[in-house]
Structures are given as C-alpha cells and as structure tokens.
Amino acid sequence: MLWKTTEYAGWGRVHTATGQVARPERVSNLVAALKETPAPAIGMCRSYGDASLNDGGAAIDMTRLDRIIGFDPDSGTLEVEGGCQIGELARLFAPRGWLPAVMPGTGFATVAGCIANDVHGKNHHGNGSFGQHVISLVLMTPSGKKVIGPKKSAKLFQATVGGLGQTGIIVSVKLQMLPCKGDVMMVTERRAESYEDFLTLLDNSTATYSVGWIDATAKGNNLGRGILEEAETGSGLMPAQKKPKSVPFNAPAFALSKPIVKAFNAAYYRRVPESGRTSVKPINDFFFPLDAIHDWNKLYGKRGFHQFQCVVPIEKAAALREMLELIARSGLASPLAVLKRMGAGRAGNMSFPMEGYTLAVDFPNRPQAEILISRLEEMTQLAGGRLYLAKDSLATGARIKSMYPEHAAWVDEVEKADPEGQFATDLIRRLDLRTTL
C-alpha cells in the first residue's frame, strides 16, 4: 500500500496534522494497509477541531471507498461504503423519493463520519440522530471484520456510533432511508424578535425540518432575535441551481470586525419581511447552504476559527440566554450562529444529542475568543448540558467526561476493541478520553 506524507487540517484550520496517509481504493487495499500500519480512519475532515487528525502518526483516508453496494427501492434500505458523501446520496436518491434520514449541515460529510459523530440534522426533534437509522455496519478492528448493529453486538455498536472512530474503521453501512416527496424544499421563513419569541416558535413548530439563524450580536430587547426556517420536501419545477462560488484567499482580519458583523446581521435579519415568506429551494440550498461557497472557512483568515456548540436541557433555557448575553457583549461572534430544538434521540454512549436547545456560534481564532469559549463551556456544564465533539477544539477532558454519563461504558468497549490504542487521534489524546479518571 502506498503511503504519502501529507499535511491536513480540521475544518476550523486551527489544528493541523502531518503524517503518513494511505488512500485505499478497495477493501482489500484497506486490509493490506491496516496489516502494514494500523491507523485511524479519516474522511473529508469536516470536523471543525482535531477529531480527524493524527499528528505525527498514520491515517487511512477512506474517501475513495465511496461505492453504493445496493438499494431496495421498495423498503428504502441502502448499503454503501463508508466514504460515500451524504450530499451525493441526497442528489442521487431524492428524485427517486428517498433521502438519508438525517443530514448534517454539510453534504461533504461521509457516511462513516456521520456515524462516528452520530450527527444530528434539522429534523432531530422528530427523527433523532443518524445512528438511529443504521441497520448494521461492517467494522474493521485489529482482530478482523465484524458485522454489528443495534441488536447484534449491541454494546460495541453503541460504542461505535458517536465513538469517534475508536472501535475500528467503518467499512460499509446499511441504512434505512427516509421517504420524501421529491428533490425540492418548500421553505417558510419567519422572524423571531427576541430569544423568548424564538423558543416559542421552535416549541410550536410542527414542520419536519426546522433551523434558526440567530443574530449573536443583538442586545437588549433584541437579544436572541433571528429567523426560523421551516421546511418540507416537495416535487415540481426545480429552481435554478446557483453556480458554486469559492473563497480564493484568506480574508483579512477586518472582514469580521465587530461593526461589519453587526451591520451584516442587521441586514440579514431584515431580508425576511415582518409577515414572513415562503419559497421553493433546491434541496442542497436548504440542507447545505454553506457548501455553495467552497473553502468558506478562509473567510476567517489564516488563523482559522473555533465553533462553540452546546445543548442544554429544556428547563435550562435561561442558561442559554445568559450565554447569548455574554456573546453579544463580547463582540466576537461571526454571522454564523444557529439555534435549534432537539429531541431525545441518540444512538451511542458518546452521542451529543439530548432533548433541549442547541446553540452553535463561530468565533475567529483569537485569544479573547478562547477565554470566552472556556466560560461558555463552564456555563454549559453547570446547566447539565453537553459540548459537541465534532465541533470542539478547546475543551478539557475532565469537563467533557462529566457531560457524558456513559463515558465509562464507552471506554470499556473501546479497550476491548482496540487494546493497543492504534485508533487514537489528536482529540482523543487532548481530552484523554480513553481513561475514566
């Protein structure tokens, strides 16, 4: 197997890694690579921090193992290799009346990556997390291949879903797809004038898909104002597809200065009339809006960015309000801030979701932002919430372990599956996740 010295990074571009990377074309190549150099798998590296990095060590790039193995059009059961991208599945199957049951905010995420992080989508309140729609998967461990699922090797399955790749390499997956009406979205946008209004809209929404953009710079009576998008799948005339754009260079620091972000957010809020509006959009425009801008992470400049994403229980909504107040006072937020309602659905020991509200905010990589995020993490912990490891780049292990009550059970299964720690990554080492102390 050919190994090549490669430099790669998390999507936030704060953490980077250099090491030997192999890109197998076939499962037989994967077996040979693991026999030669046991190493963790990586995909499109769309995790924001260091979850997909193994600096100084080896990694196996699974993106060429992206084939569709089989599909049953009657039941919607799909079998694919782990490197297949979610956006590609949506493109291929939505016209045939099926969608991946859960889709994250980027179509570039691989199926295996969605399982390793047990991702959630804009329909989590109704359809739960990605792992809940996995029928079975083929896992490559140091001791060989295993077929596991919610009932077969259930404990290993629960440690694998949301398990950050620590139990082995996900070779292929059998998924239950979700019926859809077609490949367009009927999207309704409504203004929320304050945080309380926003929560009311989220709580009363009956839409299959819902997501909120929030103005993280707003203060006072406008604190928490934003726009709620609700959507259903549809069929009919496809709107004109927008040509993808790209960011050719790192943006200068002033591009995300406080006055510019505040002005942009105010204009973005006003783009939706007070009475709201309904429009028809291509599926990608609703589910993966940022994918239309290639390399959008360059907008944060060469130093990159951090994303803070937490979820807090419903009864702790006041804690989230306090976080928004702190963020607004800091003047550090970017225009990218999202508020969603989550259900209780989760499939793994280390799965992020819990029933409550989740807030995600991007911050340019500056010392002040690190101080702010540390305070936000502490507030999350005190509220009985969790941080999302797919987005994290700054947390401490003690704090994370306290947020995941099934962490010890996960460690037990990981140690059985990978006793020599061959699949450990930078995030695992940074947070010391493979110990219970």
From TrEMBL:
Classification via Pfam families: FAD_binding_4
InterPro entries: FAD-bd_PCMH, FAD-bd_PCMH-like_sf, FAD-bd_PCMH_sub2, FAD_lactone_oxidase-like, Oxid_FAD_bind_N
The entry's keywords: FAD, Flavoprotein
Start and end residues of each FAD-binding PCMH-type domain: 14-180
Domain of life of the native organism: Bacteria
Gene3D superfamilies, alphabetized: 3.30.465.10
Keyword Plastid belongs to the record: no
Protein name: FAD-dependent oxidoreductase
